[in-house]
Task: inverse folding
């Protein structure tokens, strides 16, 4: 089950999979960016950096959005660009405050679509309780970009008594998933492939900071937060196992997947564990607080489907093992190729 | 001289000039983004936003870089992406601290070029004394982006006793320009057009925060800082005149332009006042501090060519007037069309 991607030097040029959130993305960061840009903050390799500014701990994060199509069931590129960065800040244990937005627009892009995206971003900002405070727009000649790309960055503040870091995963931690997975990726693929299901599968795109604020009340019991976007739950868990040098054990039957999404995954040949989510989070929590944290999540509208899907173990460090539906065990590796280009 | 661009509603689609840093860019922000995203910080329409975080005043800024060609005399897209955002923070009166970088890469982009850009970014970061602490990479299919686009965002801290805002321009202020203009734009155009001059005209791309730190020692005497990038000195002065509801008078003979750049401008048909700079700043300073600030700038390697180019006046509010070389006066309007697409 463990694939061995080529070393980065074997690639003379950038491949789609280098942006896929899996092994090749990790390699690109490790072998191309880190050797030059290495510093103590970048090395955290978290969803954002945690930096000291004026006596406060600030979370700082960025993501570029190149999703295609730009409008999809459950959201659009604007919604995604706001919620995605809000979520990355929340996953650092921060209260998201302010966002920036850089627009790269293809000449000839309809002004009405730009208005619609601006409106979506404002809606998303209001829902998340943050403000978009600065921005930039560049226009490139027709054919030199695909419609519109948006890069948001965000800053948030981390309260005292909060320490959410991938390295804090430790043996015994319960692993809670906030709800059913693979909705976002399948929503996008359905639109692209023109698939019709009985119901429209909509993206789960949502700002998680409201729910995370409830969890942060449990203070240092919250060890790790992660939103399983590109590369899905499988890649997120592998990243955390590697960062903390721990083993992870999950149970296939405990992982919530909606029936329509499972059906679509089967048709499309995808394993839901590798499909992107945009409104879900994984919480690593100290064992004694697990039951209370699970209840707190379930009380929040975005966490009604929360479930404990596994635990951190002392065995098999840096490896994620799944007890399968049929009673076996298998290694769940990181995404190794590119499953869904331009999913976010 | 004053052109009247069409109202934004007249454009069914986004034009190159909407990203040019002139009137149409202003309209796009005012008519498309502000109606939805309006808030007290975005409304500052500064080079960055100044926001309160944990008891500190933080400057937060972003820019997307789509320059073509990506390597040019005097720098590359990586240098530019770091220095540009560092400068935007410095223009808010902040000490730049941390940057984020979002990469949008076209499939097939040479890995060696990506390494070269990462190295440039690190060089620029070290020179500017900042750290790149978080990032993201997306890859789009071949033909869906032009090589590489980089969006940087940055945060910096504003010390007590500093208040640098476009609205602080007031009658009597001296206007200092840090050196000769139009180098960046002409460097890019020369490469694009394959023009050969006796010497290579190189971009002036540089981080200005070191020089600005010297100026900030003059505290509240420093009223406005602005780096005249897209749209050039003419557009920057017009923006400030409009923001502060003041008139501006400049003298053509006082504006430094290097001979080779002036020659190239004549050949290419450009007015240097509208050509982009990437390592220059304009300083509005209280009259009693002007001579000392000028000396401080000239002591810094990036300000040896600094000169007082004009003053803020109580007459003709929101209008920039230039005393011409031949003794006349003319209104210097904002850039109205698109002069140099993809200059940054």
Result:
């Amino acid at each position: 089950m463990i694939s061995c991607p080529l070393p980065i030097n074997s690639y003379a040029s950038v491949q789609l999979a280098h942006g896929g959130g899996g092994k090749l993305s990790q390699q690109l960061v490790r072998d191309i960016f880190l050797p030059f840009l290495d510093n103590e903050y970048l090395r955290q390799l978290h969803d954002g950096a945690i930096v000291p500014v004026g006596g406060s701990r600030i979370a700082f994060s960025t993501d570029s959005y190149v999703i295609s199509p730009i409008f999809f069931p459950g959201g659009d590129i604007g919604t995604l660009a706001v919620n995605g960065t809000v979520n990355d800040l929340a996953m650092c244990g921060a209260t998201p405050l302010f966002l920036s937005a850089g627009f790269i627009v293809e000449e000839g892009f309809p002004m009405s679509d730009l208005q619609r995206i601006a409106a979506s971003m404002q809606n998303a900002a209001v829902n998340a309780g943050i403000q978009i405070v600065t921005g930039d727009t560049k226009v490139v000649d027709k054919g030199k970009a695909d419609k519109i790309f948006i890069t948001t960055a965000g800053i948030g503040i981390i309260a005292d008594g909060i320490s959410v870091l991938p390295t804090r995963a430790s043996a015994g931690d319960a692993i809670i998933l906030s709800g059913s997975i693979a909705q976002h990726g399948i929503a996008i693929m359905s639109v692209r492939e023109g698939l019709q299901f009985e119901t429209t599968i909509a993206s789960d795109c949502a700002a998680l900071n409201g729910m995370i604020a409830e969890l942060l009340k449990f203070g240092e019991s919250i060890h790790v937060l992660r939103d399983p976007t590109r590369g899905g739950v499988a890649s997120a868990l592998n990243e955390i196992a590697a960062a903390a040098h721990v083993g992870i054990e999950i149970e296939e039957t405990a992982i919530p997947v909606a029936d329509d999404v499972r059906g679509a995954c089967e048709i499309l040949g995808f394993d839901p564990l590798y499909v992107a989510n945009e409104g879900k989070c994984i919480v690593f929590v100290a064992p004694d607080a697990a039951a209370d944290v699970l209840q707190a999540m379930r009380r929040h509208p975005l966490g009604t489907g929360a479930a404990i899907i596994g635990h951190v173990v002392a065995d098999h460090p840096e490896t994620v093992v799944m007890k399968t539906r049929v009673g076996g065990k298998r290694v769940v590796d990181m995404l190794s190729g590119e499953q869904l280009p331009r999913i976010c």
